[in-house]
Write a structure and sequence with these properties.
CATH architecture of the largest domain in chain A: 3-Layer(aba) Sandwich
Oligomer: homodimer
CATH topology of the largest domain in chain A: Aminopeptidase
CATH class of the largest domain in chain A: Alpha Beta
Mean pLDDT of chain A: 95
Number of helices of chain A: 15
Distance between the termini of chain A: 33 Å
Radius of gyration of chain A: 25 Å
Number of domains of chain A: 2
């Protein structure tokens, strides 16, 4: 009996080893294809250099959608279509400007001379403009929301300058971002609550340059909407240290406003499943980006990696069991309407979704795959670590997903996964003018696609 | 009895947990210190921008040694000295130039017009110059040493162009380098063996630019020494594809030569051990660099990380049990005389060395720590993984060391360790004009120091 058990166990073990070997061989083939014949880098160059920034509603959004459809078809999608949704249409409306006005020598000394210093600022996304005449008011230095509470009597009629620092002691920079970005999101309304007339937010970044970083703000309808800008780190340090010594007024002018909602699209390509054509695996990134940059890492990278996986599968003649959807989502940055539409349609059509995966953390060297699902699914996911680790994702972590696939996952309890590239450089360039093609490395971008392709292949082959 | 065993086991386990907690707390303190008050980035700016390239024997080498002594003292070395050694003194001697001369339209058609194209080249380190009049000869395309053997009758009087490609399918780029760099090291002598008069080597790089990459060549005394240059990748592709269609001559001029050996120094700082002052832990990088770049990643990074660990230990008031030596080695690039001297003196003085560690793979985001020692030592090393992984080095691998600490390790069987940062970008800039300060990221550099500091601390505390 024992011999039989050993025999059966051995049989299954050998079967597993053989399967793992076959998987290992196929994943290596995909890696070789992507690293040797990859088109992700060239595609990213086209998207960023020929189209550039592509905020929802902009003419560049329309061009990017056309580009996406073309590349999706060229890369071998058996089915490619545009999934329509209404998107918000915020426009910057002109150049953002700010000037600090202060006295030299310091206040209180006779013969005060007013001096000006240009500040490098960018209006926050979704923020209202100052009007033609701009805004001019004294600045109050606020280090945190707690600090705001203690100074709430001082901010009426003033510009609140949130100087909350991006915490350098978190090792993963997304933690610093999670810690700091409430000042961008809620800061303007929190300041308006106490009568402030404008807001300057320290950029959420570890960078060593002075580029300001934009991103969406969200007005609380209970309070007045006030103009708000982000400021570069060097200017923020200058402003904070000088505010300790003297009064400083800032004059700023921004021109942001909303136009009526307009039509946007998710761009969807499919490889039809041979065994389960009505069961879907989604892989995607978001096609929109902020307007002040090329959106190369955020999230051109995720888009071209998504398309690269399609291209590699076709190049190798891989026919998936399940239908794989390659999706370039609309409007992640300031509305998430693309992701919501995708989830709604899946619900309306009673679609069955096996997995949704997203790449939206930059085209940097891959380090980890994150996963959210049941414990049983997570254990299955962990079982694939040895196969994928050689390509960079040597950490398999609990918790994966992405903004765009969130609505689908919440509606259908779809398991989600995400690529976690190294995070150290991401917030140097995130939403800043330095998020350009030149700051993306070809191999790092390609290796991200390799790691995602491997997971998609394993989920397609073995299910979850 | 069983209860006693469980009790004793629990006692030891709790002791271990307590120690691990204390270690975890101290490592976090070091990380916070380095990430908040770190000087590595500023030090690197000084070294690269105020001194720049610093090849052995050059005036910049002397300046860099002075810089090293000053920073070592400022950072709190209790003992700092210059360990003298003789170093080779190769000089580039002028600008390296190359021009391709070919016919348009292709050969054989009447009315041939000669056309010229400038090629971006750099003379290989240690190579001899062409002489004043330069070199002008037809080029033979050689794809590998095997290919050379089949074409050995064709190369006499010609320039051999080794177009061996940096293999994109190796995931770790050091594998591609190990695979390709024999063409730079042995290529010139292998070609001279069959009568070639000059060599052009395809640069060992994955970069997307056209910068040529230098590095040491080694002449075999059995054959004539012939001039040799490396060529940028775009020019290499152009040359290779056009050589398939027509005859191309290249005219090149280089000016390299050796001056008499001169005096160089290892720069050594110490923190004296409180319990074992005569037992040493060495941590280092190499101070020299090629002359055609700033040597920012190679190996300015390793030098400033080494000094940063000293600074952080002092800032936190850490008194090591063993004497820790912080070493900036001389002449790694084209002679290794600094590393040899360090090993020789250790032998002569019968020093006891616990560990030698090196950072010489760039200031990129840390991924792995490598270790070489006995199996027992390796297991002890593995036991520290959980403590260090949160800071980036989540892979603990067998095999660690570095060129500079090699002679010591071989002479005294000293265990060795190395920092392995992410390798994807390293050969984009290695030995090329793009190895500059601007291509180093502040946090990635600092995190490398954090991971090394953690290992040094644990080895100091627990031995090996």
């Amino acid at each position: 009996m024992q011999k039989i058990i050993i025999g059966v166990t051995l049989f299954f073990m050998l079967g597993q080893v053989k399967a793992q070997n076959a998987d290992s061989v196929f994943i290596k083939k995909m890696a070789n294809e992507i690293l040797t014949n990859g088109k992700a880098y060239d595609n990213l160059r086209d998207l960023t250099k020929k189209i550039g920034g592509r905020l929802a509603g902009s003419p560049q959004m329309v061009k990017a959608e056309q580009w996406g459809m073309n590349v999706m078809k060229e890369s071998g999608a058996e089915n490619a279509w545009m999934q329509q949704c209404m998107v918000p249409h915020w426009v910057r409306g002109g150049e953002d400007k700010a000037t600090a006005i202060y006295s030299v020598p310091a206040q209180g000394v006779k013969n005060i001379q007013l001096t000006k210093k240009e500040l490098d600022v960018v209006a926050l996304g979704n923020s209202i403009g100052t009007g033609k005449n701009g805004l001019n008011a004294d600045v109050v230095l606020i280090n945190s929301f707690e600090d705001l509470e203690t100074k709430k009597e001082q901010v009426k009629g003033k510009i609140v300058f949130y100087n909350y620092k991006f915490n350098p002691t978190f090792i993963r920079t997304f933690q610093s971002y999670g810690d700091a970005n409430k000042y961008r999101g809620q800061g303007p309304s929190m300041a308006a609550k106490y009568g402030a007339v404008g807001v300057i937010v320290r950029s959420m970044s570890h960078s060593t340059d002075n580029n300001p970083h934009t991103g969406a703000t969200r007005y609380d309808s209970a309070y007045a909407k006030i103009p708000a800008v982000a400021i570069g780190l060097k200017d923020a340090d200058w402003l904070a240290s000088n505010l300790e010594k003297q009064k400083i007024a800032v004059s700023f002018k921004t021109n942001g406003h909303f136009l009526p909602d307009t039509i946007g699209h998710n761009i969807i390509g499919e490889l039809i499943g041979t065994q389960f054509p009505n069961e879907f695996i989604t892989i995607g990134g978001h096609l929109d980006s902020w307007d002040n940059c090329e959106g190369a890492h955020d999230d051109g990278a995720g888009c071209v990696q998504t398309i690269e996986i399609l291209r590699a599968f076709k190049a190798l003649g891989y026919r998936p069991k399940h239908t794989i959807r390659f999706v370039l989502f609309a409007n992640e940055e300031n509305g998430l309407r693309g992701g919501m539409k995708y989830g709604e349609e899946a619900v309306a059509k009673k679609e069955k979704h096996i997995l949704a995966m997203e790449s939206d953390a930059g085209g940097f060297t891959p380090r980890a795959l994150g996963f959210s699902g049941t414990e049983e699914q997570f254990q299955k996911f962990l079982g694939w670590k040895e196969l994928i680790a050689p390509y960079g994702c040597s950490e398999f972590t609990s918790g994966g997903g992405g903004a765009d696939i969130g609505p689908l996952a919440r509606a259908l309890k779809t398991p989600t996964a995400s690529l976690s590239p190294d995070s150290q450089r991401y917030f140097d360039i995130h939403h800043a003018r330095s998020d350009v093609f030149e700051n993306v490395n070809k191999r790092e971008l390609e290796l991200g696609a390799v790691n995602m392709a491997a997971l998609i292949y394993l989920v397609d082959k073995y299910g979850l």
